[in-house]
């Protein structure tokens, strides 16, 4: 029974599915090489927020009773070849006891415990989104030379850059195999394009081509570039996986578009709040599970700073040299905190969160739809 005005807990709505998420992901990551196995599974041992799979599962349920498409069912999964990426299994041909047991799950099966409104393929999609996200974190921590992730030493610190990069690649490989086994060309294309988008977003962040570093001036392009980067780096995975969930559920085209619009707007809101928290959490407080103020230290000008810069041209010089001189980071931080950059960022994020809610207004009323709305509320209330 849904009670008006009482907040639903999104996690409870798809709790049964979420309970098996980490175990299933670890199954997708088994490798015959014991060290690769450890590094690949490293970020699955700390409890992440699992926002992307949660959204995929909520979207799957929320669209299960929405309009369906006459889209023809595609070919059912053929016999998948045995784990193609565990060459050590070859040893089992010669010596069965050398088998690594690195069995890769075949096509997703429905489980007796599973929620009937969520298809096995949608459950697997949820796992794939977390794999891609985790791969990007492994690489991101190398690029950012991060020391910690989720209050523990980051993979690059524990295992070194080489193994962290390779483990990220391994996750992408396994995600691709799982994706291919869904046997849905449109969904494969969507998620493959996400991987490219993540790299494009990271590249835009690395090398800002909208900025003349010798003489940076704030223009409309500055904000547009930042938002495009933000879509690619953060919103693409959320929006395209929401779209893919609707597609796997054979939703009608307008439902597919709504799912995408929801994910895109929520994804943008989510990253804007993230960029805000990097300023509002006190430095070194550990409240985020990582040091706050990290963006400026990395030379990154995110939304709060861009809005401050719009009002105070003095910031341009600091942006140009990427806050690299002694005292730059502190000065930039103070100027941002004294401006209304944080409020403007919050207002922009709220606008996107509202758009996300609006995108799914025509979905049939159900608990999962309430859960999707609540995810927008939670995104705006987030403190870490
Ligand atoms: C976290 O951002 C990083 C991302 C959202 C994406 C990073 C993308 C790449 C490194 C490109 C390679 C992609 C793949 C799929 C291998 P952040 O550094 O702002 O956040 P953090 O505080 O969590 O580190
Ligand atoms: Mg980082
Ligand atoms: Mg980064």
UniProtKB/TrEMBL annotation:
GO terms for cellular component: transferase complex. GO terms for molecular function: metal ion binding; prenyltransferase activity; tRNA dimethylallyltransferase activity. The keyword Zinc does not apply. One of its GO terms (biological process) is ubiquinone biosynthetic process. Its EC number is 2.5.1.75. Keywords: Isoprene biosynthesis, Magnesium, Metal-binding, Transferase. It comes from the Eukaryota. Its cofactor is Mg(2+). The keyword rRNA processing does not apply. It is an enzyme of class 2 (transferase). Belongs to the FPP/GGPP synthase family. This is Coq1 putative hexaprenyl diphosphate synthase. The lineage of its organism: Eukaryota, Fungi, Dikarya, Ascomycota, Pezizomycotina. The gene is COQ1.
